[in-house]
Amino acid sequence: GFDPPHQSDTRTIYIANRFPQHGHYVPQKFAENRIISSKYTVWNFVPKNLFEQFRRVANFYFLIIFLVQLMIDTPTSPITSGLPLFFVITVTAIKQGYEDWLRHKSDNEVNGAPVYVVRSGGLVKTRSKNIRVGDIVRVAKDETFPVDLVLLSSDRANGSCYVTTATLDGETNLKTHIAVPETAVLQSVANLDKLVAVIECQQPEADLYRFVGRITISQQIEEIVRPLGPESLLLRGARLKNTKEIFGVAVYTGMETKMALNYKSKSQKRSAVEKSMNSFLIIYLIILLFEAILSTILKYAWQSEEKWNEPWYNKKTEHERNSSKILRFISDFLAFLVLYNFIIPISLYVTVEMQKFLGSFFIGWDLDLYHEETNEKAQVNTSDLNEELGQVEYVFTDKTGTLTENEMQFRECSINGIKYQEINGKLVPEGLIEDVPDGIRPHLTREEELFLKAVCLCHTVQINNDQTDGTGDHLWRANGISSQLEYYASSPDEKALVEAARSHWSTRLVLYLLEQVQTVWSLKVSEGQKGDKLLFTKGAESAILPCSKHGEIEKTRIHVDEFALKGLRTLCVAYRRFTDLEYQEVEQRLFEAKTALQQREERMTEVFNFIERDLVILGATGVEDKLQDKVQDTIEALRLAGIKVWVLTGDKHETAVSVSLSCGHFHRTMNILELVQHKSDSTCAEQLRQLARRIKEDHVIQHGLVVDGTSLSLALRQHEKLFMEVCRNCSAVLCCRMAPLQKAKVVRLLKTSPEKPITLAIGDGANDVSMIQEAHVGIGIMGKEGRQAVRNSDYAIARFKFLSKLLFVHGHLYYIRIATLVQYFFYKNVCFITPQFLYQFFCLFSQQTLYDSVYLTLYNICFTSLPVLMYSLFEQHVHPHVLHSKPTLYRDISKNAHLGFKPFLYWTFLGFSHAFVFFFGSYLLMGEDTSLLGNGQMFGNWTFGTLVFTVMVITVTVKMALETHFWTWINHFVTWGSIVFYFIFSLFYGGIIWPFLHTQDMYFVFVQLLSSGAAWFAIIIIVVTCLFLDVVKKVLYRHLQPTSTEKAQLTETGTGINCLDSMCCFSDGETACASLRRVLERVMGRCSPTRVNSRIGKPDLGSQLDAMIVDEETIKVEPSKFLKILELYGTLLYQRPKHLDAVLNGLYHVLRPFLSVLWKDLLLTP
User: CB 3.0 to 4.6 Å from 508: which of 480, 712, 778, 1044, for a disulfide?
Assistant: First the structure.
C-alpha cells in the first residue's frame, strides 16, 4: 500500500552504507559534506573579479577611454585615466578578496571540525568534511549537528532529545525530536552497528519545517515501516540541549543541507539616490558626446580654410594627407572624447562607497538607539540604503512584537458560556465580587475539568532544566507543583496559558510531545471515561467555531468578540470524543497518510479534515499583549512627517482595531471604513465604490480603512485601481487576518503604483521576512520571535520607538550628505573640464590640453576629494535634537527633493558659470600680451592653465566650505589643508627636476606664477566673483523663501539655546562688525545655535555659565567670579577646541558687562 519511490523526487539511503549484495544496485551520488560559502578561488579570483567589476557602466567606460588612449595619439597620457581606474579596481578587489578570504577561513574551520562516526563496530574520529550520506554520527550535549540527521536513538529510553534552532530560525525555545521505537532502543555502538535499515526520503529542499520520509527496518524475517517527519530530522547548525548524546544517520550533507539551501543572497536593493546618480551620469555622458562631436566638427570647419589647414609650423606628412577622412574624423572624435572624459567622475563611486560604509557605523554608535534592558544596539546589515531612510513615504508594520511587547499575560477566559476574569491575581466568575481563595470554585464542573485538561495538554511548551536528563520526577514536590521550572515555547500565547493554568488551578502539568497540525491548530488525544479517546484542540475562532456543533457556541462567540474589543488575543478550545472503532479508523488513515512519500501534506490535510469535525466547544481564552513604550508618540511623529502608516497583522478584526486605537494608529475622531468578510467579487467591488463615494463626500474628515485577508484577495484580483484609490485617500490603513505572502503582496502593490513611493517594512517574526525583503527598506525588530527578521532586514533596532530617530535624524542627515556629495561631484567636474573645452576655441581645436597630466590625475584623487568626504560623514545642517523634535522637517527632503531636476540644473549651471569665470577671468588678465613679471617676461601656455587650475581648486574647496554648516577640526583640517597641500605639491612638482619624468613642462611654472602680484590679485578677484553670486542667491532665498529647515537653522530658540555656540546670537547694542559677522555666518550656514550643555560642554558647565551672564546694573566686580568664569571657559576650550570661535565670542559677551562697569569705575575714580 506504499507509493513506489520516484527516482527524481526521492533518495534511498542505506544506514551505515550497507548496500544490498544481490541484484544490480547502482549507488546514488550524494554531495560531500563540505560547506562552500566563498565566492572565489586562487585560480579564478583575478578573471572573475575583473569581469564583475567591469560590468559596472562607469568602470567599463573608463576602461574604453584607457584603451583608446593606448591605441591612438591622444592629447593626454594614458596614465590620467589608467591610474584612477587602477586605483578603484585595486581597492575594490582587495576589499572583496579580503572578505572572501574570511569566508574561506570560516569554511575551513567548519569543514575541519572533529566528529565521531560509527564504522566497523566502533566510534571513529574524523573531520566533518569526511561524513558521507548513510554514516551513523554521534553528537554530544551542546554540540552542533554537522549534517542533517535522522534521529536513531538518544540516551533517553523513549528516544527523545531537545534541540535549539536559534542559528537557523532564531527561535530560542527547546524543540523536542523523537526517534522511531524500533531504533530508539539501540543506545550502544554495538547495537547500532548491527542495524539493517533503509531510509527513503524526499530530495533536499530549503523549507526548514518540512521533511517527508519513511524508514524500513529489517528485523529477522519481517520488515517494519515507520513514517519520518520533521520531528525526526535534526538540522545542521542546530544544537543539542539537555541530552547527553544522540546517534543519527546522515541524510543530507554539505551544500544539500537545509541550512546551506537557506543561504540565498537577498535581492539587491537600489536607493533613489543611486538611480538619480545614474540618470545624471547619462545626462553628463550626453554632454560629453555633444562637446566631443561639436569640437570635431568645428575643427574640420576651421581647417576648411587653407591658412589654418596646414600652417607653416605644422606641415602634414604625406601619410596624413592620404589617410581616410572618416578614420581621421573618428580618431579626432575619440581624442576629444578622451580630452573631456573627466566630466564623468570615476572617483564619485569610490567616495560614495566609502561614505556609505563609514557612515553606517554612526547608527550602531548612536546611544539613543541602544536598548539597555536587552543590551541591544542598532545593527546595520547593508550600508547601501542609508540615504533611503530619509525618503520613506509608507511604513508597513507588524503588530505583535513590533507595536506590542510580545509578552503575553492571561487576563480572561470563557468556560461553558461563563466568563472568568483575573482579579487580584485570582480567577473568578463574572459577577462574583468576593474573593475566592483558590481562584476558581473548589469543585470543578465536567466542562471546567475538560477545559483545564485541554489547556494543560494542548501546547508545545518545553521545560528547560539541566536536571531533566532522567525522568524528571524529582522536580515535582509532593503537592504536584514543579519547583524552579523554566518554560520555553515557540508562541508566547502558549507560555502564558500554561503559566496561568499552573498559577490559577495549581495543577501538575503533564508535558507531552505534541503535534502541531496546522499553523492555527494544535491537537492532543487523551484517554477519557469508559476507554473513549478525547481529542483536544485549540486555535483561532475562525478555525474552531465553524467545526463546532455542540456546546455554548454563541455565548463563546460573544465572549471572543468582547475579548477582542478589549485588545486581547483570543483562542478557542474544543474537544471531540472517539469510540474505539472510530479511533482505530483514524489511526489507520493517519498511518497511511504519514508513510506516503508522495503528496503527504495533501493526504494529511484530508485526514485532519475528517478528524476535526463535530467538535464540542469548551470555551475561549483572552491574553493581553502590552504596547511598547512610546509607540503612540512614534506613530504620531511619522504622521506629522508626512509618512502613512499601514498595520499588517494576522490578528482578528476586533483585536486589531482595538490595538490600532490604543496605539494612535486610528484616532477616535477618525471615520473608520471597513472592507471585511466579503466572499464574492461583486460584493467587494460594490463596497469599494461605496467607500470611494463616502471619502469624496466627507473629504474634510480623516478616514481609516480596515480590510481583512479574504477581502484583500478579492480586491486585488480585479479591482486593484479602485482599492488603491481608496487606500491613498485614507490617513491610516489596517489589514487584519493577513498571511505572510499577503503582507509582501500589499507592499509590492504600493511599491509598483504609479507614484512609486518609497516603502519601509518593519517586523520581528519569521512571518514578516517576505514583507521586509519586498520593501525598499526592511527593518527588523530584535524581539522574542527569534532573529529571522533581523537577519533578513537591512537595519535592525530593539524597539519600535527607535524608528523615529532612525528616520528623522539619521535618514535626514544621510540624505542631505549624499545628495550634496553627488551634486557637488558633478559640479566640480564641470568646473574642471569646461575650461578645457573653451580652450579649444583658442588653440584651433588642436586637442592641446590646458592642464598638466599630473593635475588631471590628482584633481579628483587628492586635491578636492577629502573635503566633500568629510562633509558627507559629519555634516549636521540642523541639530539632531531639532530634527527629532520637529518631524515636519522630514517633509523638506521627501520625494528626492535635493536630487530633483531643479537642483540638478542649478548645480550644473553653477558649474558652467564658474568655469566661464575661471577661464575668461584668467584670459582677460593674460590675453593682451601683458607683462606680469618684474623682468618683463610674459606668461606662457602652461602658466595660463596653472592659473585656471589654481583658481578652480580654491573656488570648489571654498564652495564646499560654504555648504558646510557643522564644523569640526577634521573639516577645518581637510578643507584648508587641501588648498595648502595643492600649493606645496605644486611647488615641489614644478620646482625640482625629476629624473624619472621624460618631459617636465611644469618646471618653475608655479613658482613663476606665484611671483606675480597681479596673479595673486587675479586669484582673489576670480574666487570672490565666482562665489559672490552664489552667496547673494543664498541670502535672498533664506530671507525671501526660506524652507522649514532653513527656518529651523535660524530660529532654534528651544530649551537650552545659548549664544556660546554660534556667532549668530547677539545681545542688544551689538557693534556693526558683529552684525556683519552674523550675516556672514548665516550665509555660511553655521547659524544653527544649540545649547552649550549639548554641544560645547557638559550640562553643569552650561548651567554655570548661564548663571554668569548678568547685566551692568546688577553686576558687582568680584575677583572670585571673574576667576570662576575664566576657569569655566578654560575647561570648555579644553573639552571642545573645535568651538574656539564660538567660545571666545561667548566669553566676550559675558565679560563685556564686567569691563563696562570696571571702565566706569575707573573714570569715576578721582
Answer: 480
8 A C-beta contact, residue 338 and residue 68 = yes
End-to-end CA distance of the chain: 125
HEC assignment per residue over 798-858: CCCCHHHHHHHHHHHHHHHHHHHHHHHHHHHHHHHHHHHHHHHHHCCCCCCCCCCHHHHHH
Q: Is the CB of residue 420 less than 8 Å from the CB of residue 429? A: yes
Residues 6+ apart with CB under 8 A from 1143: 1060, 1096, 1129, 1132, 1133, 1136
Which of 248, 218, 227 has the alpha carbon at shortest distance from 515?
Answer: 227
Burial class from Cβ neighbours inside 10 Å (0-12, 13-18, 19+) for residue 935 reads: exposed
Q: How far apart are CA 230 and CA 43, in angstroms?
A: 41
Residues 71-110 have pLDDT tens digits of 877 767 777 778 778 888 887 788 788 878 887 888 888 8
Burial string for 400-423 (b: 16+ CB within 10 Å, else e) reads bbbbbbbebebbbbbbbbbbbebe
What is the rounded CA–CA span in Å between residue 925 and residue 943?
Answer: 12
Q: Which residue has the higher pLDDT, 533 or 145?
A: 145
Residue with C-alpha cell 503533564? 510
pTM score, two decimals? Answer: 0.70
Per the listing, cell 559629519 goes with 874
CA geometry: angle 268, 271, 274, nearest 5 deg: 105
Cα 404 to Cα 408, 628, 766: the distances in Å are 10, 5, 16
**From 384, 398, 493, 764, active-site residue:** 398
pLDDT (tens digit per residue) in 449-496? 888 888 888 877 777 555 444 444 444 444 444 445 677 665 667 788
Cβ(994)–Cβ(852) under 8 Å? no
Write out pLDDT tens, residues 255-301: 888 888 866 455 567 777 878 888 888 888 889 899 989 988 888 88
Amino acid at 50: L
* DSSP secondary structure letter of residue 863: I
C-alpha span between 139 and 130 (Å, rounded): 15
Can 580 be counted among the known catalytic residues?
no
**Residues in Cβ contact with 442 at an 8 Å cutoff, skipping those fewer than 6 apart:** none
Give the three cell numbers for residue 964. Answer: 558646510
Helix (H) or strand (E) holding 550, with range, is: strand 548-550
DSSP 436: P
SS3 of residue 121 by DSSP:
coil
Query: What is residue 923's predicted lDDT score, i.e. its pLDDT?
Result: 85
Residues 6+ apart with CB under 8 A from 1007: 987, 990, 991
